[in-house]
Amino acid sequence: MDQNMSHHHHAAIESEPPTPKTGSAMPPSVGHMMSPTDPDNPQNWPFRKKFYASSVATAFAFAVAFGVTSLTVGIQGVMAKFNVSMTVAALGLSLNLLGISFAPIITPHLSERFGRSPVYLASLPLFALFILGAGFSNSFAALAVCRFFAGFFGGPCLVLIEGTFADVWSAHITVTYYSFLSLASYIGAGCAPLILGYVVSAEGWRWTQWVTLMIALAAYLFGIGIPETYPREILRSRARRLGQEIRLAKAESGVTFAEMAQTTLFTPLAMTVSEPVVIIITFYLALNFAVLFQWFIAVPAVLHLVYDFTLQHIGLAFIAAIVGALVSTLTSNLIEAFTNRLNGCTSMANMAPIEYRLIPATVGSLGMIGSLFWIGFTAKPTISSIVPIIGTGVYVWSSMSILTALVSYIFDAYPAKGTLSALTLMATTRILFAAWLPLVIITMIMGLQGQWAYAVFGFIAIPMIPVPLILFWFGPALRARSRHSAPVMGNGKHMVGHQVDQEIQMGNM
Fold first, then answer.
1. Count of H helices and E strands in the chain?
2. Contact at 8 Å (CB) between 184 and 219?
3. What whole-number distance in Å separates Cα of residue 388 and Cα of residue 394?
4. What is the distance, to the nearest Å, from the Cα of residue 35 to the centroid of all Cα atoms in its chain?
5. What is the dihedral of CA 387, 388, 394, 400, to 10 degrees?
6. Which residues fall within 8 angstroms of residue 224, CB to CB, at 6 or more apart?
7. Does the pTM exceed 0.70?
8. What is the pLDDT of residues 16-72, one digit of tens each?
9. Euclidean distance between CA atoms 441 and 444, whole angstroms
10. Closest of 118, 127, 114 to residue 61, by C-alpha
């Protein structure tokens, strides 16, 4: 999910504070919304403070992502308790994702008005409250409602993490920091079956929610001192403290309700028919996430039916997914380090053309196709279970590499307001697709047989292979025709840059 990322490079603020009543005035804010020499600028903080803020954001996102997939581990218990089918029980996952899908639309406006820290510190307790309700539910309707609202209130944590990372880390390492923040969601989701397989076997399905609650509480206690990182809020707080006024440019996310709706609702809808770059990336990431989240329903079912795995062994199979996410972070970092060195890029002042951010997706697109056919045609009793399990690890590596590359690319593809709308569309759409596919995947596997069910996804993904290359070579020309476009510099960088990194926040899910 990818928003509130807006001021790495865009000049988004005009600040001409009068002489303060106390203290001395700071220099006007430019670029990152705060002067590069301003000691309050999060990018000038000591490393330990940056690391703490990033770690808290990671812990909060991990807790919510863990909660997303936690109930899938106890799905058999839910079916037995409430006498429902697997498809109905899977609503515990899908409704949670449906709740999260609202976060990219509303979180930018909350963050703009209150800053990041208050939203973090309100979001996680509300998430925990509904996780508690889910654990105590005595009807499936109550469970479904609580799971939806746990996603709705927890979603901002998955959105804000990108804004926090963009606030404190430099834009010239966008792919690097995005790959690290993505680990929070990928590993959080993957750890749920790994940890809970043993717990649920011994204690029952309700413990999927109790363990999630414990993790949320631990994250909250760790993060209760999170510093405010949003530059606009830092400037507002400083002005109030010094008794001075500061003039900020209008927030890119809008001020009035009509402006907010235009930016994160109506413009994204219009982009579905008017922006070729956004359309193709949105579809690619929607397919990516739909397949990613169906594994949490399909893998346990297939490993149990084909290989007679126990719940504990099924959980261990998700180690491959966690390893795949870690390897994706490593490869994406190495690729960015190499391309930055190739282009002589050492800071925001001389960033490499954004097209180089697409390279991880170029490699990942091949892995995505190969892993789908690999898993589909090897999950059978005559072939060792380790073969399709490794295939899921390859898929996760591919999925995260593609996500990291394409979202990092969009950060600077348009000016701030256009990028905010594009990221809102991309995030909301891929989460909705992720909510849909788990509801039908078992029916697909039973109807088409496993190999052809995944072959269908493989064939759909084949036309996506050249997408990163098309964007690499023709992206600047396609964007230049857009009404959301900005002037492009000779090296392919926008003159107004990467503003969406901080004001927009869309989360990594």
1. 20, 0
2. no
3. 10
4. 29
5. -160
6. 121
7. yes
8. 333 333 333 333 333 346 788 889 999 999 999 999 999 999 999 999 999 999 999
9. 5
10. 127
